[in-house]
Design a protein that fits this description.
mainly alpha; two-stranded antiparallel sheet; globular
């Protein structure tokens, strides 16, 4: 630590702690009128706005994080509305969009030195734990929709363990085991106690991680409503929908899709880093792809999903077999059992969801040879 910084820090803390320093505290309350809402959403006592360490954190970092917020929202303008909708639909506060912002700055290709990746910075093991595909052909940590759904499931899992949203964010950063040890050592899960600088029950990185999320949340909620010119300018940048999500069936190359959309394939790749260079494999069945909003008309006019008739003709299928979905069945496992692809099942059954429901019936297109083999057995 820089020794020259200590006297200034002590001076700031003393100034904020004394009655004469109340101007700074009340100024923060006026500057971030949404502070009470933000903290209550995260299960934090709103009086934390007057915590000397938090106040000092804001005074030192506000300008830097304002720039970070602006740069992040420019990069994430295609993700922010999507993430908010997904979070709200899953019963989570839309403020968790600022957790993703803190993690990745909305850099779709973000990767940490510890090999966490994507917009929500999942480690490979955690990603697989929440059913994200991470292999040489596909890394769904970079998929904005799949990774957000996995992050939501992870956040809800952590909430079932810890019961408070600020503990969820702490565990997301430092790990479940480390947080449990910290709570045991502190003898409480009280926010102020765990955030105490001197006791250091949780890592300094985690303490500042929480402060950063809270500050960005207060900043973002203020900018959403502020009449100031600089805030209106940021809103104008964020609000236009420059990219939209569309459904694309497997078997489509990015080059062919770009040609269909009358756009540069490099731009399409940049918008969809989660996809392989070759495109959308049939094994994926159906996936969502970001396309520029000004290309949506081309998608609607020229993109035609494959039909059952086409796959029958292309793959020499001649029969349909009824399959009753059992517990543990997936589209991939069912397709493998019948020597077809997940895409074939999606087309044959006009599926809109990729998780088949237990005891439902799926029609499976098969060749005559496969049909006769099953009849014999």
């Amino acid at each position: 630590m820089n020794k020259r910084f200590l006297p200034r820090r002590e001076f700031l803390l003393a100034a904020l702690a004394l009655p004469g320093g109340l101007w700074a505290l009340s100024r923060l309350e006026e500057k971030f009128p949404s502070y009470r809402y933000v903290m209550e959403e995260f299960d934090i006592d709103p009086s934390y706005i007057r915590d000397p360490w938090f106040s000092e954190f804001i005074l030192r970092n506000e300008a830097r994080y304002r720039r970070f917020y602006e740069n992040s929202t420019r990069r994430g303008k295609a993700y922010i509305p999507l993430f908010r909708d997904l979070l709200n639909s899953g019963g989570l506060s839309h403020l968790f969009v600022y957790l993703s912002m803190t993690e990745s700055g909305f850099k779709s290709t973000a990767k940490s030195g510890k090999k966490a990746a994507g917009l929500w910075q999942f480690m490979a093991a955690t990603a697989r734990r929440f059913n994200l595909r991470v292999d040489k052909n596909r890394d769904e940590r970079y998929d904005p929709v799949a990774s957000t759904k996995a992050a939501m499931e992870y956040l809800q899992t952590l909430y079932r363990i810890f019961g408070k949203w600020y503990l969820v964010m702490m565990a997301y950063n430092c790990g479940e085991g480390r947080l449990q040890k910290a709570i045991k050592r502190a003898g409480t899960d009280d926010f102020a106690t765990l955030m105490d600088e001197k006791a250091a029950y949780i890592p300094k990185e985690t303490r500042n991680y929480l402060r950063k999320i809270i500050l960005l949340s207060m900043m973002g909620e203020k900018i959403k409503r502020s009449p100031k010119k600089e805030d209106i300018k940021i809103r104008d940048i964020i609000l236009p929908e420059s990219e939209v999500l569309v459904n694309i069936y497997g078997g489509m190359t990015l080059r062919k899709l770009a040609k269909l959309l009358r756009m540069n394939v490099g731009r399409l790749r940049k918008l969809n880093p989660q996809l392989s260079a070759e495109g959308i494999d049939e094994e994926l069945g159906l996936t969502q792809v970001f396309v520029p909003a000004d290309r949506l008309g081309y998608y609607q006019a020229f993109y035609t999903p494959p039909t059952l008739e086409e796959i029958f003709r292309k793959k020499h299928y001649q029969k349909l077999i009824a399959h009753i979905v059992r517990k543990g069945d997936t589209l991939r496992s069912i397709a493998r059992a019948y020597h077809v692809t997940p895409l074939d099942l999606i087309i044959a059954n006009q599926l809109k969801e990729l998780k088949p429901k237990e005891n439902s019936v799926l029609m499976v297109p098969v060749t005559r040879e496969e049909y006769e083999r099953r009849i014999r057995h």
